[in-house]
Specification:
The complex is a heterodimer.
Chain A: H1 7-14, H2 25-54, H3 62-65, H4 79-103, H5 107-137, E1 142-145, E2 150-155, H6 164-167, H7 197-206, E3 210-217, E4 223-225, H8 228-234, E5 238-242, H9 255-288, H10 290-294, H11 298-323
Antiparallel strand pairs in A: 1-2, 1-5, 2-3, 3-4
Helix pairs in contact in A: 2-9, 2-11, 4-5, 4-11, 5-9, 9-11
Chain B: E1 8-9, E2 14-15, H1 19-43, H2 46-50, E3 52-53, E4 56-57, H3 58-78, H4 86-119
Classes of the chains: A alpha+beta, B mainly alpha.
Chain lengths: 324, 127
């Protein structure tokens, strides 16, 4: 040690109150949390990448899964997610404007910008709920094979997707529902598909314009469409009619796709939801003048960091789930 | 504390007069990048799908690059890492980058191996 160091500077180094990183305790802890949370999300996305590379030839094509926009009929891939992304980036901007207004101690501007941020977050969470509902409901229906693969149906002449209702035969009495009078231990039957397997198979046989599309991606990056002959052969593997998606069955293709979709967008949506809640608390604190009395708006900055982080994660989820 | 803001982006190419202006500037830039991504995703130019680099389509490389560009501007300007001390910025940025790159490398290699095992017919799965 240098013996010429005076006790005054020594006190300055060891006496506490130093900020070698130029950031307060609270802000550093927020960054600690964000880095660890980033690693959690990366773990999920890397696991998604693992499953996808494992089934690289049969993975669902996102453009064909997310094709709906609220209040509009037809095929609009990507537009709605792009809108959601824009909403989230926009709410990030109002958040950073709130932080900026906080630095200048403009209470009313902070209130106004925090309010807009909360609205943006609420729109995003609502959109995600709608996206989930649409995904769970499904649109065309498919048949699952013994090996858990999915067979979808297309019209041979146009190449458009065919819904089960377009061609499935209605065969009366092919299935009897379980009723209360037939059993002591009666359980409600719950959901079952609109058509049973036999009706779909018979419909396929009777309708020469319908062919099977398998999960396999061909060299042009499209799903393979079988010939009429091969379709009739392939449908023999079918065991189950699937409509929509859940954790066990998925009409869009690999069930892992649905699992990861629910898990990762769900975890992200939960982050957005808690972000909105935390923003609300801070919003009311700003209105009550808590930070005005405290003399600084660092709390707004800290929740701002969290909010931007949620936006940052969405940028990655958007790329890996919808674009790539 | 981040009271003084650095008001340049694109390595000084674009200089803003105030922090608020910079925020709107970054928003415009992020919006343009997102619009380009969505347009590419809808059009899917044939040439970008046919060409591959390191076993992945060129289009996917473009998407990933643009994502990292967006992530950079969100972290640097919205989370104002640009105004933080270098030591803090590096601790925050390089820790996850290193760990994630390592994890992704391992998992994707392993997944490709599993894919080949399935493909070469040791496991019956498409029936």
């Amino acid at each position: 040690m240098d013996s010429t160091v005076t006790s005054a500077t020594e006190e300055n180094v060891w006496g506490g109150g130093n900020r070698p990183l130029g950031a307060s305790y609270g802000k550093l802890m927020m960054w600690f949390f964000l880095v660890s949370d980033a690693l959690t999300f990366s773990g999920f996305l890397a696991a998604y990448g693992f499953s996808r590379f494992k089934f690289i030839e049969t993975w669902p094509i996102a453009d064909q899964v997310f094709t709906h926009v609220p209040f509009f009929h037809g095929n609009y891939p990507m537009y709605y997610v792009a809108f959601m992304t824009f909403i989230l980036i926009m709410s990030s901007v109002t958040m950073v404007l709130a932080v900026d207004a906080g630095h200048n101690n403009k209470k009313n501007a902070v209130i106004w910008y925090m309010f807009l941020t909360i609205i943006g977050g609420a729109i995003f969470v609502g959109s995600q709920a709608w996206e989930w509902a649409t995904f769970i409901r499904g649109d065309y229906g498919a048949v699952e094979t013994k090996g858990g693969r999915i067979l979808q149906f297309v019209k041979a002449d146009t190449g458009e997707r065919a819904a089960l209702a377009d061609f499935a035969k209605t065969i009366p009495d092919s299935r009897t529902g379980h009723e209360r009078k037939n059993g002591v231990w009666f359980f409600d039957e719950g959901y079952r598909p609109s058509y049973d397997l036999n009706e779909v198979v018979e419909g396929l046989k009777a309708n020469p314009n319908i062919v099977v599309r398998t999960e396999t991606i061909n060299e042009e990056g499209e799903k393979t469409v079988l010939s009429r002959q091969a379709s009739l052969e392939k449908i023999k593997d079918g065991t189950l009619v699937v409509e929509g998606a859940n954790l066990v069955h998925n009409e869009y293709g690999s069930r892992l796709f649905a699992d990861f979709f629910f898990f990762i967008t769900g975890f992200h949506g939960f982050h957005v939801f808690s972000g909105v809640m935390i923003n609300l608390i801070i919003f009311f604190n700003v209105i009550l003048g808590t930070y005005e009395r405290r003399g600084h708006y660092e709390m707004v900055e800290k929740v701002g960091l969290y909010w931007h982080f949620v936006d940052l994660v969405w940028v990655f989820v958007f790329t890996f789930f919808y674009l790539v | 504390m981040a009271h003084e803001h650095k008001l340049e982006i694109f390595r000084g190419l674009l200089k803003f007069k105030s922090n608020t202006q910079k925020i709107w500037g970054v928003l415009i830039f992020l919006t343009i990048v997102t619009a380009v991504e969505v347009a590419l995703g809808i059009v899917k130019p044939a040439i970008l799908i046919q060409l591959t680099f390191l076993g992945m389509k060129l289009l996917n490389w473009i998407f990933i690059t643009l994502t990292l560009v967006k992530a950079y501007y969100i972290a640097w300007d919205f989370m104002h890492l640009r105004d933080e001390k270098t030591a803090l910025r590096r601790a925050i940025v390089w820790t996850p980058i290193f760990l994630v790159a390592y994890l992704v490398f391992i998992l994707l290699f392993e997944a490709d191996y599993v894919y080949n095992v399935y493909k070469d017919g040791f496991v019956m799965w498409d029936f």
